[in-house]
């Protein structure tokens, strides 16, 4: 028995309370440390973010400058002209570290622009002469050019490519461009075409679609994409439907469809053999690019036939 009257059990309980208090205080201290570290980490991230962004921008400028140096070494004035007209060239000359590039860029820009203009004039002349040599009509409004209705293209000097009816030709050689346009002309125009059977065939497809939809009155618009697919199927032979072999499929592209509609309008025959007039309705949704009666490429959303009055 102790002198102060406390038992061993009382001493043990006091020790337990002390341990619990120490543990609780340590927990509070740990919580404070975690909050401090998390806040410090977030602050450092906020400092680092703009710095990294600045570094990335400087790296982009350095890469751009290296591009310019490479094109100067190659005397590639087409790419150089495109680079020096870009926003990046403007940003670079405004940078405190690289602003001394302003004068070299100005001189290079004038040099490249003069070279490109000479090249453009020679290109337009060569393209026109080569088209004339092969009896190919062509109107050139650089960088665009057109031939017969439904044939148009764009030349991109900087990318060294030409787009003809949305198909990319990896060249800006005038001779190869004329050859490609001739190929498209043969596909679209050098085919037998009789406007009366053509428009009668369109009306037959139109009537079948109305019949499936339990509509019998002409004049109801049919979605042009649905009509085009049905018409392509109507052109296929019976052997194709027996085994669906690709080799037996008769291709009929949207470009051919557009040109045939234009040739029908241009023929001036009027309507179908049964006295129905073709009508195209312009629109944006679910449309096809076709050529209307005025010879203009338009987005057409539906087709219909009206009885002549």
Structural class assignment: alpha+beta
Q: Classify the beta-strand content into a percent band.
A: 5-15%
Radius of gyration: 37 Å
User: Tell me, what's the shape?
Assistant: extended
Residue ranges: pLDDT <50 for 5 or more in a row?
A: none
Count of domains = 3
Helical residue percent?
Answer: 55-70%
Distance between the termini: 128 Å
Number of strands: 9
**Main beta sheet: strand number and arrangement?**
5 strands, antiparallel
What's the total helix number? 9
Physical arrangement of strands within the biggest beta sheet: 1-2-3-4-5
Order of helical and strand elements? HHHHEEEEEHHEHHHEEE
- What average pLDDT do the residues reach? 85
